[in-house]
Amino acid sequence: MLEKTDSSFMVGIIASLPILVSPFAAPIGGKMADKYPRKLVLFFSRFSTSTVFVLMSLIVNMDISPIFLIGVLSIILGIFGGIEGPSGRNMIVDILGKKRIAQGNAWAELANGVVNAIVPALSALLLTIFTVNQMFWSLPIIGYFSSLILIYLVFFLPKQKTIKDSSSNSSIKESLIYAFNNKNIRPILILGTSTAIWGITQPLIPAYCRDILGLTGTGYSLVTSANFVGAIFGSFILIGLGAKLAKGVVMSTCMIIFSLTIFLFFIVEDPYLAGFLLFFSNIFITIWIACVFTTLQSLSEEKYMGRVVAFFMMMFGLIGIGFIVGGYLGDTIGITLTVAISSTLITLLNLIVIYFSKSYRQMKI
């Protein structure tokens, strides 16, 4: 996409579409996660997503206005992604129970890290054999394969507890009021807006790697793989320490360290050091994300858990806004200044919440 448009702003717009749309679907997905069997919601969403990938592959390979139609399909992907998210994450509770949520989220992040670390490196290898257009077919193949695995889970996972309470059919507005009236949940959701600021830096990474680090193709894939290897290391830390990390001050410390290391990434010019900084930064953002899920799932009443988790996933939707803002600012005021502003805002936001929220400072699971 960067080669076609030569603009980090356009990369930000196209990449942000699924994430911009998903917040609107996430509350619906959260309500479905509270009301219906989560494993069925997850299977339906994943199968539908795979079908959209088939259409996307056809459009790309037939070269039918690919940028416009990929944008439309990306919006549809965002809808199914928003529906899928709360059910996928809260199935951990169905399987392990609340006492082992921290370990469950740690293993979930480990699985994500392993997949994300392998995919760029594998893509770099496959690009020596297949064209970029042909590689699009890997998306529906992987999607349908994961759907087959979910069929197994549908039959063999423990039955989800049915919440026989009128609140399971309550409005999304009522659930939002519950979340923000809860002194423990409220500061976590406020800090969830850090994800939008994080998103500002993301469309700048490919441009920085190309223009400053001189990386394209295989080199860029390997550097971004180092990023996801950091997630693997962070997951092992989570597995070892579990709920001990799910404390307000610890979580904010992780986010502040992340913001500082991602800033350093954008001022170094050595590819190896840049790769290490991406690796190091992703350790801490992985810990933060897993701990946010763990605290929200642990602190929420079960009848609201799907929707509370969905509200945080709505915060992830703000990453899409960050993509657009980051791409625009990167093209106008420059990459370094844009990242410096982002890192400063993340640090200030966390310090402010720590200072004003006693419940957040004392929070532990």
Could you walk me through the main structural features you see in this protein, from its secondary elements to its overall organization?
This protein has helices at residues 2-5, 8-35, 38-62, 66-96, 101-126, 132-135, 138-156, 172-181, 185-191, 194-201, 204-211, 218-241, 248-265, 271-299, 305-332, 335-356, 358-361. With 365 residues, it is mostly helical. The termini are far apart.
Unreliable spans: none
Beta strand %: under 5%
Order of helices and strands: HHHHHHHHHHHHHHHHH
Give the % helix: over 70%
The number of strands is 0
Shape designation: globular
- Structural class based on helices, strands and sheet pairing: mainly alpha
Oligomer: single chain
Number of helices: 17
Distance from first to last alpha carbon: 43 Å
Overall average pLDDT: 82
Q: Report the C-alpha radius of gyration, rounded.
A: 20 Å
Give the biggest sheet: none
